[in-house]
Amino acid sequence: MLQITGRLAVPLEEIELSATRSQGAGGQNVNKTSSAMHLRFDIGASSLPGEVKQRLLGRHDRRITAEGVVVIKAQQFRSQEQNRAAALERLRELLASATVVPRKRKATRPTAGSQRRRLDSKTRHARTKALRGPVED
After folding, report:
1. Is a pLDDT exceeding 80 seen at residue 110?
2. Which of 1, 23, 48, 71 could in theory staple to 9 by disulfide, Cβ–Cβ 3.0 to 4.6 A?
């Protein structure tokens, strides 16, 4: 189980992990070891609560495909186990951030004093700019 919060956990069976060859520098060893990890997590088929799924699918995160699959590639470390742990941690952080319910925004109005100060500031700024015009003889 991947523990997300105190009450929410995801079974590891829902997470698909596969090892691939890592990109970038690393000498000859990089061509023969598969140390990078690809993590795939299908949001729609998961056991997450409905509202968490909706918040995840509503996000504009490049790690979430149009089909609703989270794809994370971890290749920071040289060992497969460290990359596996890093990918799972990044998934945990993403899912934990989706469990937070956003607060409703309360519509507010500017005070009379702040409106007056804003208009006075605009008037002063307009006068300053008017003085920057061409000089007349």
Report:
1. yes
2. 1
